[in-house]
């Protein structure tokens, strides 16, 4: 009759056994001990690191040269001003790269003999621009194109630099998309076709959505990478965050501005990285549940 | 759950060990004991050819790559041709190191001033002396009085400038880390931000391609660029020195280097006996025919 009692909300007849209580006490004690040990080892590590760094010969000069508060304060607003250029480049180039990369990837996966030249061109493009070092692409586009004195072609170093970034990164992203497209099981396409969708409709409504969703983590990786490489457009004379730091370093021979610029970039990248991790984890969870990926 | 916890904990332990290992392994070499050599006492203890150089019996001199005209000829500092190459050998001679005892090293401008032991005895690279930089490095006495000049394409709007105010609405370019850039920021204060280049030849190509209206460099470089490299450009004029202080190029030595006193004494001696003036005459064009922009 215990069940009926329970339902009426009278006292719970369950009394944990002595053995169970003992087990729980033991578990709690172990957990406390683990926390204490972890805290202590972290503290010891911190102290040892601090002592090693501070007592290292040359620390004094390193601190003066790399961690000077006065220079950090001077550099921060200028670096932020330069960072605005990096952010704008990231947004515009990022959008252009996604579009162009997708077009190239689709061109590479088209079926049918008539599309052979398109496939060959797309493959040649990705091979070439993935292999060509970004800095060379930038030099050729930013410093070489204006020398051609083409009518109606801009000489603005920022636009040219953005073009070079887009060319290189589209090749990377095209490969990411292509891997995604090819990872969609052929049965999906076959099923779509058997439902009466045309080849184009199957690609557009069945294959690409799955391909893109699957490729979000590597895409975000490339985006983080692009964000850091936007600084390279400064070879054309535009002042970005790194170059802004460079200017102060050149004048003062103090390296603190580099540290400031580096930290600003890291601060910008961390949210992106966390987002990538979160998206990956979510995808994994869904896949583990056997849901749609 | 235990195993889940254990992995990160083990990772922390591993990282700790690794960090400690690197911290110990990468501890910098101790700074040189500067008390052994006399410093700042010219002519005193500067034994000819027996200074406390990096390599005993040899004088290691650094400069950037590429090395530009008119400071170096054909990008080769060891030729003795070009103003700075000639000055370097003259200073070496004074210190008792003949041509055969001089070793050249190529060190990028920014790298030459990183803290820690230097790989060279002194660096000669058109570095302007400033109090701010003195906190990071030692300078010899100045070996050249430098003035900044503006160059622009012939017939352009910038080329017609008669004063600093006329340059306010043109796009100016300069090399990063140079006094030229500071002149743009402090003296001209143009409406559009200056274009900043890693190297002078990029500034030159930007001028040629119309990406900037005018470029600021030191006067000898300006003369060389307009005479030999961008022949459709001309010197618009030269700036007056900022404030009343003379701007001078100096040889760069490690902070607290034992050689600073001896090198300074050598440079001063070269100035006294007219060698510097003679080398200037020989390698650098006369600067009188560039109008001064007020």
Index terms:
heterodimer; A: 293 residues; mainly alpha; MetI-like fold; B: 294 residues; alpha/beta; D-Maltodextrin-Binding Protein, domain 2; 2 domains; 6-stranded mixed sheet; 3-stranded parallel sheet; 31% helix; transport (chain A); Ectoine/hydroxyectoine ABC transporter, permease EhuD (chain A); transmembrane transporter activity (chain A); MetI-like (chain A)
Give an overview of the whole structure.
The complex is a heterodimer of chains A (293) and B (294). With 293 residues, chain A is mostly helical. Helices cover 79% and strands 0% of the residues of chain A. Chain A has one domain: MetI-like fold. The longest helix of chain A has 41 residues, at 69-109. Chain A is flat and about 85 Å long. With 294 residues, chain B is α/β, with parallel strands linked by helices. Chain B has two domains: 59-145 and 247-293, 3-Layer(aba) Sandwich (D-Maltodextrin-Binding Protein, domain 2); 148-239, Periplasmic binding protein-like II (D-Maltodextrin-Binding Protein, domain 2), CATH 3.40.190. Chain B has eight helices and eleven strands. In chain B, the strands form three sheets. A six-stranded mixed β-sheet of chain B has the order 7-6-8-5-9-11. In chain B, strands 2-1-3 form a three-stranded parallel β-sheet, covered by helices on one side. Chain B has a two-stranded antiparallel sheet with strand order 4-10. Chain B is elongated, with a radius of gyration of 23 Å. The interface between A and B is large, with 39 and 48 residues. Chain B: GO terms for molecular function: ligand-gated monoatomic ion channel activity. Chain B: Residues 29-55 are annotated as: Disordered. Chain B: InterPro entries: Iontro_rcpt_C (IPR001320), Solute-binding_3/MltF_N (IPR001638). Chain B: Residues 1-27 form the signal peptide.
